[in-house]
């Protein structure tokens, strides 16, 4: 069997070593005679898996004291609602930075619960950059300030975050969490669906500062109440146990690689090699401002869009999968998450140069 190079934006590639370990334990987890999938979430075996996953995640991200780490359900999309429900308190508005498709979705959902103030937007430039924090028209009375750390579709990423003072900074880091070290203490809430850089779909990591929980809106479903989830160890109901277990294997794998400093160096290198090839050619083009280009999702277009179909088809024949851009923007997109190796980028670059030579 040969495994392809998978550039999917999500659900995305998982480390082969993780899949092998899961395979070896599939029928019989540590001589217990059953699969993790078949265990009670209250069993001591599963509680140990869950606690280890949390401990490893805390270690990887150097989460300071005073933060809950929650493993929730419903993806980042349900957090679009959970954030206003938990954080509004007495307030009635929140500030949002509009950087692309995912920010749009977060904004639309928040509007069901509060007044959303768009304090900065790159929409007029087709979402090709991150608006400078100095230009944000912030409100003094916002319950929180929301950013989308990496626009998975547009390929626009925050490479640093501003100090928002007493107003909690909330970040959707679905496609960038664990790609590099971050300073968790800058954030009130970080949330991330798993299926990009963490593990299989079905589980959602939420980091929330302890002082921000416990004042949910009256109608908040208990499943979305951060205080309820924190108190129950993210087991208010049956959690997605298998996704949690695989995420734990990914955390262990990341530690074995040398942690997030090492991943950052690899991710910076993988993406910059690809951007260099795109920038050096008149055949490929990346629309994103260089300073704000994502390390995780590299969008590029072909000079002649008529060739898009052929590019995707021939790439697939070469073992390079899922390069088609999102249907909303067209072109190509290569997602280079942690589990995508350097060799995948090398193979993609070789393919792109050969394709250009044949078609330019
Ligand atoms: C994928 C993604 C989402 C949606 O995640 P779901 O888990 O499908 O809800 C939200 N925000 C960003 C930045 C994403 O990349």
Which keywords apply here?
binds pyridoxal-5'-phosphate; 9 helices; 360 residues; 3-stranded antiparallel β-sheet; alpha/beta
Written overview of the protein:
With 360 residues, the chain is α/β, with parallel strands linked by helices. The chain has nine helices and 14 strands. The chain has helices at 16-24, 44-61, 75-87, 101-110, 226-231, 241-257, 260-279, 308-317, 342-359; strands spanning 5-6, 67-72, 93-98, 115-121, 145-148, 150-151, 156-157, 169-172, 189-193, 204-209, 284-285, 297-302, 320-321, 332-335. The protein has a seven-stranded mixed β-sheet. It has a three-stranded antiparallel β-sheet with strand order 11-12-14, with helices on one face. The chain has a two-stranded parallel ribbon with strand order 1-13. Strand 3, helix 4 and strand 4 form a beta-alpha-beta unit. Helix 2 crosses helix 6, helix 3 packs across helix 4 (101-110) and helix 7 (260-279) runs parallel beside helix 9 (342-359). The longest helix has 20 residues, at 260-279. It is globular and about 60 Å long. The mean pLDDT is 97. It binds pyridoxal-5'-phosphate.
End-to-end separation in angstroms reads 34 Å
Number of helices: 9
Order of helices and strands: EHHEHEHEEEEEEEHHHEEHEEH
Shape: globular
> Which ligands does the model contain, each kind named once?
pyridoxal-5'-phosphate
Characterize the biggest β-sheet: 7 strands, mixed
The pLDDT mean sits at 97
What Rg is obtained from the alpha carbons, in whole angstroms? 21 Å
């Amino acid at each position: 069997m040969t495994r392809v190079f998978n550039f999917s934006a999500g659900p995305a590639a998982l480390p082969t070593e993780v899949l092998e370990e899961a395979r070896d334990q599939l029928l019989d987890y540590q001589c217990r005679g059953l699969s993790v999938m078949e265990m009670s979430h209250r069993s001591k075996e599963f509680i140990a898996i869950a606690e280890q996953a949390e401990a490893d995640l805390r270690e990887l991200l150097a989460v300071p004291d005073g933060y809950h780490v929650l493993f929730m359900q419903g993806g980042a999309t349900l957090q679009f609602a959970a954030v206003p429900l938990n954080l509004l308190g007495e307030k009635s508005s929140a500030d949002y930075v509009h950087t692309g498709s995912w920010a749009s979705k977060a904004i639309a959902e928040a509007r069901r619960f509060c007044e959303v103030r768009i304090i900065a937007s790159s929409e007029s430039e087709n979402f090709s950059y991150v608006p400078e924090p100095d230009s944000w028209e912030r409100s003094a009375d916002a319950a929180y300030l929301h950013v989308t750390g990496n626009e998975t579709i547009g390929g626009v990423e925050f490479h640093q975050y501003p100090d928002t003072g007493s107003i909690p900074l909330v970040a959707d880091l679905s496609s960038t969490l664990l790609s590099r070290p971050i300073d968790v203490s800058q954030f009130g809430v970080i949330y991330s669906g798993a299926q990009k850089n963490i593990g299989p779909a079905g589980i959602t990591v939420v980091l929330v500062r302890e002082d921000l929980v416990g004042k949910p809106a009256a109608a908040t479903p208990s499943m979305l109440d951060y205080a309820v989830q924190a108190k129950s160890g993210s087991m208010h109901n049956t959690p997605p146990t298998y996704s949690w277990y695989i995420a734990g294997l990914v955390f262990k794998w990341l530690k074995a690689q040398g942690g997030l400093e090492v991943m950052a160096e690899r991710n910076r290198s993988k993406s910059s090699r690809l951007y260099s090839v795109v920038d050096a050619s008149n055949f490929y083009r990346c629309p994103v401002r260089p300073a704000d280009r994502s390390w995780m999702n590299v969008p590029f277009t072909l000079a002649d869009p008529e060739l898009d179909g052929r590019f995707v088809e021939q790439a697939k024949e070469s073992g390079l999968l899922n390069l088609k851009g999102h249907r909303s923007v067209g072109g190509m997109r290569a997602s280079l998450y942690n589990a995508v190796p350097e060799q995948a980028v090398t193979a993609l670059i070789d393919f792109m140069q050969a394709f250009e030579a044949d078609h330019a």
